[in-house]
Amino acid sequence: MKIFITLILVLLTLGLHAQITVKGKVTDKLGHPLVGANIIIKGTYDGTVTDSIGNFQLKVNADNLTLIATYIGYISQETAISTTQNPTIINFKLKEQSNQIEGVVITAGTFETADRKRSVTLQPLDIVTTPSATGDLYGALTSLPGTATIGEDGRLFVRGGDGYESKTFIDGLLSKKPYSSNVPDLPSRGRFSPFLFSGTTFSTGGYSAEYGQALSSALILNTNSFPQKTQTDISIMSIGGGVSQTFKGESSSISAGVEYMNLQPYYQLTTQRFEMNKYPESIGLTLVARQKFGDNGMLKIFSTYSGTQFGLQYPDLTVSGAMSNISIENKNNYTNLSYSDKLGKGWFLKSGVAFTIDQNDLNLQSYLVNESNRNVQAKITLKKNFNNNASLLFGTEETYNYFNQDYNEVSTAFSNNSNFNDFETAAFAEANYRPISKIALRAGIRGEHSSLLNDNNLGARLSAAVKVTGASQLSLAYGNFYQTPEENLLRFTHNLTFERANHYIANFQWEKSNRIFRIELYKKDYKNLVMYNAVEYWNGSLYNNLGKGHSEGIDVFFRDRKTFKSLDYWISYSYVDSKRIYRDYPIMVTPPFAPKHSASFVAKKWVQSITTQFGISTTFSSGRPYNNPNSTQFMDGKTPYYHDISINCSHLTTIFNKSTIIYCSINNLLGRDNIYGYRYYSQPDTNGVYEAFPIKADSKRFYFVGIFVTL
Amino acid sequence: MKKTILTAVILMFLGNVMAQQANFENAVKETLTLLDSAKTTTDLQTAASKFERIAAVESLRWEPLYYHAFIYINLSFREKNGDKKDALLDVAQNDIDKALEANGNKSELYALQGFLYQGRIQVSAMRGMSYSQKAAEILEKAVKENPENPRAQFLLGQNIYYTPKMFGGGSKNALPKFILAKELFEKETEKSDITPRWGAKSNQRMIDACNKENS
Predict the structure, then answer these.
(1) Do the Cβ atoms of A432 and A388 come closer than 8 Å?
(2) The domain at A110-710 falls in which architecture?
(3) Is B126 in contact with A611 (Cβ distance < 8 A)?
(4) Does A513 reach chain B within 8 Å, measured CB to CB?
(5) Is A102 on the interface with B (CB under 8 A)?
(6) Residue B24 located in a structural domain
(7) Distance (Å, rounded) from C-alpha A568 to C-alpha A468?
(8) Alpha-carbon distance A194 to A138, whole Å?
(9) Residues of B with Cβ-Cβ distance to A68 under 8 angstroms
(10) DSSP states of A382-426 as a string?
(11) In this complex, which of B53, B81, B91 lies closest to A47 when CB atoms are compared?
(12) Which range marks the domain in which residue B43 is found?
């Protein structure tokens, strides 16, 4: 009973303690005052906020109290008041949380775009509305610095690198054949619609250890996470049409689409350079499915099939004036399954497997080339976030590559078959560390083994970024990159090693309220490039890894979405000095795919009153080298400069109450006769001169009209 | 005697608990009054700081987290810098996540989540498509949880209002939602407790704006 009375007394006496004053200041690490920081007396509702110079003052009961200081973007701090001194002075120095958006991100070599970030360079919609791209993912990327417009090829050529040096990854996994197949000298396009992807990271060098087998560049695409609603999309185009249906449930979704393209009507209305034997015709099927597991688990399935046929008459370069019928038939299937999940305690899992099955039959009249390629890649990656400042990523990947080529010469009945299997095993690890929010460091390592080459490689990837001011930052990157020689080089020998490139990159970026400016200096050294004899290209014993080369250059980019209302424009400029000796080159020269200067300008203006966006893009690049057999010097020819102006407009409207986009575009508006290079007849004419045949686009201008309806 | 004292103690204990409860409600109410009269950004921050303190003690209650998030979303609309907008919304997102864990009122928290998504759009028009979809989705969920929630209807109305006409948006299509919200706001009797009750005035402003545009 006494206890109860004591208890009552204790309860009654609460609040009778002497009050003291606590004063102090809240600052950041460097002593700058934090204005409006919250001071909490732990366990009570009481407290105060700091004034305009970071000071606070509180009257408290001098019990064993704890004060907590909190501020947005900073880690909260607790301090116990142990003295009864009046006034007591307590100062807080708060540490920054470095997962803040303002924290620095390494930008050397990368153009990243994602939903969450604003430092975007290209969004899926930007790709579709870039006039020169005609809806092609890779076409749009050539409006970024570091890339060259190679009109007769269509692949990505990055910083003086060949087309094969760039690889495309979808949800972390290799896409072995990301380009459509075409006959020689006519460009291929990306197989995949830009609408399938929500995030794009385009790296022109120095990329993460997670990605390998690419000497120059990695294009990392992430498919859309989950559809927003059940819908039907219909497209009617001047060159074909398509329909797709998306069903969306609570935790799963599926969408299936079919697309048919036939260029016959279009080609019959316009003039072409070549006569068509078989108008380009293709059918494409796409299946995308999603299944959520728990709160964060997500299984993604992405599968496409395409079948293409095309044939035309091309000069027979062995006999002057003769034409040969050439044709191509391609069947391609790509399937990508990936699963990602949060495992708790900062662990994150990403895993998947991707299959490519490709059959390509090329008929060049005098000879036939039938190629089949099968590629399977399985990959598992684990990431652990230790705290806001450090993370570790590691994983392993196994790639199986099968190649088979049948070569038949019609007149001589000569035939050759080459095929091989390669198992490539890779492991990688990468650590990210941010000692303070102004500095970011990344160090990675990647090791690979190829069963075919019976060889190993080990490469380091290092990068760092420092925030200079609130809006600007400096980044540096270094890396070793290896790539197994291309399939056509492994036809006659496997006694080769990995080709190799070292990247050195320095980048400065300034970004403020919808304006971004970046400038990047780089140097790339090539080693171990494959060489062979031009005449005896079939002689495996003459293959070696003695080729080498280098590229040095500067890339500049500026994008502005602020200065002019509803106007978005970007300017890119690249300078590259590239030389190499590889394949059958007799001496070190600038290759045809490395024009010295490239510049492009893209502008888009949205006019609200007529709900229409107008776009214009223009590309310029200096002349490209070509080899003229009439000259004694190797590769001393130079084409005229390249120039293109393209325009488009997209009009948003409703047809029968359904939202509709009407799109039209004209490529090469001025009809400039761009020459990409020359082919030469294999025999000199009566005057002893090799006659040239220019490589050009098959039509001067390209017109496109499409209607896209969403039901 | 013993019994009496025991009863007294129990009563006192209960009293204490009840007092604490009353204390909590009073503190929230007081801060809400402060919030209602807040004009400047500093006023809003002061109110937010109080809610933060209350939330720090009352970890089982969702209301202080709700209001803290609500103020931060409002602050994000006042902020001009995109990065800072996002940072403010990140704080609000953290609050909403915690409030849901504390078994807060789902309909109200989903509605607030929709409001937050609308804030994300302010950062970049490029986000418009995806975030307005996200907002619509979660707001529909809020309505499902409680069809009587006027804030969910009001925010759905806002979503439609700011969607381009050709995609089914615009004032004409939004007005029915605002009118429905108005009815629900009126039904929402002048609750003296601490559950959310904001929105009626803004809703009326939207109705006026719609009527003006359509007249």
Answers:
(1) no
(2) Beta Barrel (2.40)
(3) no
(4) yes
(5) yes
(6) yes
(7) 27
(8) 9
(9) 56
(10) EEEE-SSSEEEEEEEEEEEEEEEEEEEETTT--EEEEEEEEEEEE
(11) B53
(12) 1-104
d(CA A527, CA A104): 33
Classify residue B13: in a domain, yes or no. yes
Give ∠ CA A541-A544-A546 in degrees, rounded to 5.
155
Q: Which ranges constitute the DSSP H helices of A271-391?
A: none
Is B65 an interface residue toward A (CB < 8 Å)?
Answer: no
Whole-angstrom Cα distance, residue B118 to residue B121? 5
Angle at A670 between CA A668 and CA A675, to 5 degrees: 60
Q: Does A14 touch chain B (CB under 8 A)?
A: no
**In the predicted structure, residue A12 carries a pLDDT above the cut 60:** no
Other C-beta atoms closer than 10 Å to the C-beta of A63 total 11
Q: Which residue from A102, A115, A228 is facing B83, i.e. has the nearest CB?
A: A102
CA distances from A343 to A349, A380, B93 (A): 7, 14, 21
Q: How confident is the model at residue A290 (pLDDT cuts 50, 70, 90)?
A: very high
User: A46 by DSSP, 3-state: which?
Assistant: coil
Domain range A2-94, CATH architecture: Sandwich (2.60)
Pick the range with the lowest mean pLDDT from A308-317, A655-664, A699-708, B138-147: A655-664
Question: Are A628 and A689 within 8 A, CB to CB?
Answer: no
Whole-number Å distance between alpha carbons of A173 and A302: 12
**What pLDDT was estimated at residue A128?**
75
Query: Would you say residue B194 lies in a domain?
Result: no
Locate A182 and state its tokens. 């075409």
Instruction: Note whether A43 contacts B57, CB cutoff 8 Å.
Output: yes
The three-point CA angle A228-A234-A235 to 5° equals 120
Tell me: the pLDDT tens digits for B96-151? 988 988 889 999 999 999 999 999 988 776 677 778 888 998 999 999 999 999 99
How long a stretch of residues is chain A? 711
> Shortest Cα distance from A225 to chain B (angstroms)?
11
Question: Is A227 an 8 Å CB contact of chain B?
Answer: no
Strand ranges in A14-143 using DSSP code E only, listed in sequence order: 19-28, 38-41, 47-49, 55-61, 65-70, 77-81, 88-89, 92-94, 110-113
Instruction: Tell me how close the Cα of A114 comes to any Cα of chain B, in angstroms.
Output: 10
Neighbours of A568 (CB within 10 A): 20
CA distance A382 to A340: 10
Give the contacts of A481 (CB within 8 A, at least 6 positions apart). A212, A214, A215, A216, A459, A500, A501, A502, A503
Residue B211 lies in a domain: no
| pLDDT of res. A412 | 85
Residues on chain B touching A44 (C-beta within 8 angstroms): 53, 57
- Polymer length of chain B: 215
On whether the CB atoms of residues A370 and A406 are closer than 8 A, the answer is: yes
What is the domain count for chain B? 1
A684 to A314, A315, A322, A694: CA distances (angstroms): 19, 15, 15, 16
Nearest to B87 among A38, A100, A120 (CB): A100
DSSP characters over A474-492: EEEEEEEEEEPPPGGGSSS
> Cα A532 to chain center, whole Å?
32
Phi-psi region of A344 (alpha: psi -120 to 50; beta: other; left: phi over 0): left
Under 8 Å between Cβ of A149 and A158: no
Amino acid identity of residue A678, one-letter, is Y
The mean pLDDT value for A93-116 works out to 60
Q: Which residue of A has its CA nearest to B42?
A: A36
Whether residue A117 has pLDDT greater than 70: no
How far apart CA A203 and CA A479 sit, in angstroms, is 13
Q: Residue ranges per domain, chain A?
A: 2-94, 110-710
What ipTM describes this predicted complex?
0.82
Pair B42, B33: CB distance under 8 Å: no
Residues of A in contact with B23 (CB under 8 A): 45
